[in-house]
Give the backbone structure.
Amino acid sequence: MESLDNTREITSIVFTKALISIKKFEQRGFPFSSWLHRIAINEIAQFYRNEKKARVICIDTIGINRLADETGKHNESLSPLLVNAMQQLMEDEVLLLELRFFENKAFAEIGEILGITENNAKVKTYRVLDRLREIFNKLN
């Protein structure tokens, strides 16, 4: 029940902040949902910092397959390593992987959500992938 209450509280904060800041929203060729997503990510991150709780990521088969293609790992060998490897990444690195591979966001939209350029989103994502490969090699 506490989880549901927390979800409601965070949702309430996100929409309150969105309503307060709606005048600042600028159409830049991205969906309104990207702007809202950015507010939500910031609030969720703040919640976990305040509560010092672990963050949960929904790791689905499609996302694992996309990540396997990028890292050169076979799907069956990637799954057991992924949880361990993700725990060794920084929060912002995990967020990049989550947005790109598990939410299937384009680099331009990731940049918009995170407040960085599209190119910076690409560079950061590929650096995280390199780091993930290094972690996988150490775990094998």
